[in-house]
Amino acid sequence: MFKRFRKGEIVSAPEFMVVGLGNPDRKYALTRHNSGFLCVDLMAEKRGFKIDRLKFKSLTARTEIAGRGVLVLKPSTYMNNSGIAVREAASFYKIKPENIIVIFDDVSLDVGKMRIRRKGTDGGHNGIKSIIYHLQSDAFPRIKIGVGKKPDEEYDLADWVLSRFTEDEQKALVPVFENAADAVELIIDGKIDEAMNKFNS
After folding, report:
1. Parallel, antiparallel, or unpaired for β 114-117 and 100-106?
2. Which stretches of the chain drop beneath a pLDDT of 70?
3. Fewest CB atoms within 10 A around its CB: which of 21, 100, 153, 188?
């Protein structure tokens, strides 16, 4: 039985990691690129734990999902170096890539959509590129949160992903984040195919 040392948290070594990607500065809080952070924050609120322990160049929490020990990670390394934090934590707890679930923004999906993948390339996302590089593997499941396409071809991609969600978009994201939290539970429970069938849009 897991020993709890704070509400929602456990002592036993985690078997899984859930990584939300984003940038740590307050000015980035509600930007499209911080969808991973926003998602795991909502997951923490829903499950009653806090992601506030500084470790592995990240804010972390230890919890239990689907009966398994889980480390939740918000890297503080900035997006382009996310892999440094993920590698440190994975190495410390000997967590294999297949047990690392990464949640991040995807400009190819509309706001209100999400997509689950078992593994794959970085797709041009610098945070995923860094994780693949530092883990030397692309075999980790990921949940892509739709943040919408650029308004036009001339719009700079970096400016777009660092732009803030509108109020309507923020409302549309809430059920997506809730679905992502449910998908995480299914994936940890060994039911990634079920998660993909249920939530891919």
Report:
1. unpaired
2. 1-11, 201
3. 153
Phi, psi of 159 (to 5 degrees): -65, -40
Contact present, 109 and 144 (Cβ < 8 Å): yes
What value does the CA radius of gyration of the chain take, rounded to a whole number of Å?
A: 16
**What's the pLDDT tens digit per position in 20-31?**
999 998 999 999
Q: How far is CA 5 from CA 11, 12, 118, 147, 156, in A?
A: 7, 10, 32, 36, 46
Question: DSSP state, 109?
Answer: S
Would residue 125 show up in a list of annotated catalytic residues for this protein?
A: no
Q: What is the pLDDT of residue 1?
A: 38
Q: What are the Cα distances from residue 107, in Å, to 43, 102, 110, 161?
A: 22, 16, 7, 8
- Note the pTM of the prediction, 2 decimals: 0.92
Catalytically annotated residue among 28, 30, 33, 195: 33
The top-level CATH class assigned to 16-199 is: alpha beta
